[in-house]
Amino acid sequence: MKDIFKFSRQPKFENPSLIVGWQEDAGKLSSKVIEYLNKKTKTESFCEIEPVGFFSLGGVAIENNVAQFPESKFYCSERNDLVIFKGSEPRFERYRFLNAISDLAQHYCKIRELYTISGTISAIAHTSSRRILAVFNQQEFQKKLQGYGLVNMNWKGPPAINSYLLWIAEKRNIPGVSLWTEIPFYLAASEDFQAVKKVLSFLDKKFNLNLDFVELDERIGNQNIKMAQLRNDDEDINKYIGMLESKISLSGEEQVELTKKVTQFLEKG
Q1: Average pLDDT of the residues in 204-209
Q2: What contacts 24+ positions apart, CB below 8 Å, involve 51-57?
Q3: What is the mean pLDDT of the chain?
Q4: Are 128 and 156 in contact (CB under 8 A)?
Q5: What is the CA radius of gyration of the chain?
Q6: 51 touches 93 (CB < 8 A)
Q7: pTM confidence score
Q8: Burial of 142 (0-12, 13-18, 19+ CB in 10 A)
């Protein structure tokens, strides 16, 4: 354990819940949720996973002229009895990495529940309400979260990293749920602030956090204004989004054009 973890402080826990988010996600959903949650609940980092053995250290990714170093940090809010993990997906030894997260969460933090956060790309318009699709590892936990507006998810395809983490938690008898919030496909390369608020609203209700959404509401409003401007300036974009609002499928070429134009427009600021 000492070979993998680097502790910076020794927080005190009661019986916390663990929330997990990743840097790499559709619409930057989980990273934005964690950043907002950390800021508003004033969490402090207390531990990180050493990158050696899990990440390639020979080169660093560059995004918007900023070096992106792998990050694998645990944060805590002792007042809210929460442990939060924000990390980069490991390049190597994924199973060992996920077991390391689980070991610290179970044996050091004594967590009672696990929540993982991800975005799932959907053929919906940005004007549509977002749904949170959920996968549980225990029926009892599923019943416990009835009334929170979660929609059961049926997924056929290769498992994601959160699916493995949920499976590991099940083997350790830790109740867990993987939350997948809908992201309009043409916002997947940008940011979806409405989806971020949807997840934060769930967490706010579940853990009685009394979060302040003023800053986030402003960003949602600004993005909606920009999208309205783009629709007004570009007839094709307005037509494509209107088709999605009417639940009419777009062709592959139309999807590509919509995504490209929206991404370029939002990147201009």
Answers
A1: 96
A2: 53/92, 53/93, 53/96, 54/90, 54/91, 54/92, 54/93, 54/96, 54/97, 55/88, 55/90, 55/91, 55/92, 56/91, 56/92
A3: 91
A4: no
A5: 19
A6: no
A7: 0.92
A8: middle
Q: Which residues pair with 44 in a beta bridge?
A: 76
Residue 39 contacts residue 136 (beta carbons within 8 Å): no
Average pLDDT over residues 81-88: 94
- What's residue 153's pLDDT? 86
| Mean pLDDT, residues 225-230 | 96
pLDDT at 59 over 80: no
Q: One-letter amino acid identity for 241?
A: I
Token pair of 205, please?
A: 């209700």
Strand 72-77: give its sheet, edge to edge: 5-7, 44-49, 72-77, 82-87, 17-22, 113-122, 176-184, 132-136, 150-152
Coil/strand/helix, residue 112: coil
Token pair, residue 8, equals: 């910076």
